[in-house]
Write a structure and sequence with these properties.
By secondary structure, the protein is α/β, with parallel strands linked by helices. Helices cover 38% and strands 14% of the residues.
Length: 386
């Protein structure tokens, strides 16, 4: 019997989005820019407590522009969290620069401050400090920004804060995306809110955000004809997609609450197995850290679970048409970055080996949870006393 697909993280669209999109059509604002873009940027500024925001075509484009604004060029280095999606690192190579990968701490799963400090000390001794540092708030969990910022300040290296997965997360009520020289957001289809495809660049520097907008619209000079004195990019968000974003942003708090409820639901479910001889671990939040819980992730060490692995769980769920996914494969393990320098402590390797992302959409139903738990029950039953 065919069973409907349960997705890892599907878009969750409501009625507000359609209202704004219809408004764009009714007023014929289908062109790349328009009033929805301006309004969306203002709403993002309010949400993230940032002074300035540029709505762009993707989080990747925001990272690329941040690197350009910091003057990253061929031959430079940029320190980047290894445990992340490749979009955190790819824009470094767009500029001809070399990524240097920093491993994770075991608690937040994000950039390890002690490794960052060691890497910067070595770079200083070699006379070549990086042009930027890119920490990532993995799966919505804030990185240890207090320590990372203090270390970066000591070496006078700017931070590009990859908050692509962390809209709605904060540390002591300071929103993720507002800590660094630049903050980056993503509104890809699987994110906590979506514009179908899109992103944003955040900063306190008005001049740099205005320059980002200029570069993102093909760097067209102020002239009656098409004149270009700089290399530009087609990176601006359209008015229609910004309309979707306005509607999505209005329900962000509801989406965050739903995702956090998902996390608690899973944690409560697995507690019965943790009390019955298994050990399923989660990404835990330090005191004062508020995660949007974009994705609920578990760690399954076969040595502590009678030989049960995350891959056994993933394949078993897949047979029931339930999507799950291993944690990000660290960048230092990726073939394309095999020759890049890295500072490794083994944490991200272990996370990738044992970690699994579970279905976490804000539109998951009780019936879908029942299916997920029924499937998991069958899996655990096979390994109860094996």
């Amino acid at each position: 019997m065919y069973k409907n697909k349960i997705w890892l993280s599907s878009p969750h669209i409501g009625s507000n989005e359609l209202q704004y999109v219809n408004e764009a059509f009714a007023t014929n604002w289908i062109a790349p820019l328009g009033p929805h873009v301006n309004a969306f940027e203002q709403a993002l500024q309010a949400q993230t407590k940032s002074s300035h925001a540029a709505a762009l075509s993707s989080g990747t484009s925001a990272l690329h522009l941040a690197l350009i604004l910091l003057g990253v060029k061929a031959g430079d280095t940029v320190f980047c969290q290894s445990m992340t999606f490749s979009a955190s690192a790819n824009p470094i190579t767009y500029q001809g620069a070399a990524p240097v990968f920093i491993d994770s701490e075991s608690y937040t799963w994000n950039m390890a401050p002690e490794l960052l400090n060691a890497a910067l000390a070595e770079a200083k001794n070699n006379g070549k400090l990086p042009k930027a540092i890119i920490p990532v708030h993995l799966y919505g969990m804030p990185a240890n920004m207090e320590e990372i910022l203090a270390i970066a300040k000591e070496y006078d290296v700017p931070i590009i804060e990859d908050a692509a997965e962390a809209l709605g997360s904060n540390i002591e009520n300071k929103p993720c995306g507002s800590f660094g020289e630049y903050g980056v957001l993503s509104f890809n289809g699987n994110k906590i809110i979506t514009t179908s495809g899109g992103g944003a660049l955040l900063s306190e520097n008005a001049e740099m955000i205005e320059k980002a907008r200029f570069l993102a619209t093909q760097a067209r000079d102020s002239a009656p004809h098409y004149q270009h004195s700089h290399i530009g990019y087609n990176y601006r968000m359209s008015n229609v997609l910004a309309g979707i974003g306005r509607g999505q942003l209005e329900v962000l708090n509801d989406r965050v609450e739903a995702r956090r409820n998902n996390f608690e639901t899973y944690k409560n479910y697995f507690s019965k197995y943790n009390n019955a001889g298994f050990t399923i671990n989660f990404q835990e939040a330090p005191l004062g850290y508020y995660s949007n819980r974009w994705l609920t992730c578990i760690l399954v060490d076969p040595a502590l679970n009678n030989g049960l692995t995350r891959e056994i769980i993933r394949l078993s769920l897949d047979e029931e048409n339930i999507e799950s996914r291993p944690l990000w494969k660290p960048m230092h393990q990726q073939p394309i970055f095999a020759n890049c320098k890295s500072y490794i402590n083994g944490v991200s390797d272990k996370l990738f080996e044992e970690g699994l992302c579970l279905p976490s959409g804000s539109n998951l139903t009780d019936e879908e949870f029942d299916r997920i738990f029924e499937s998991l029950d069958h899996i655990f039953a096979k390994y109860q006393n094996s």
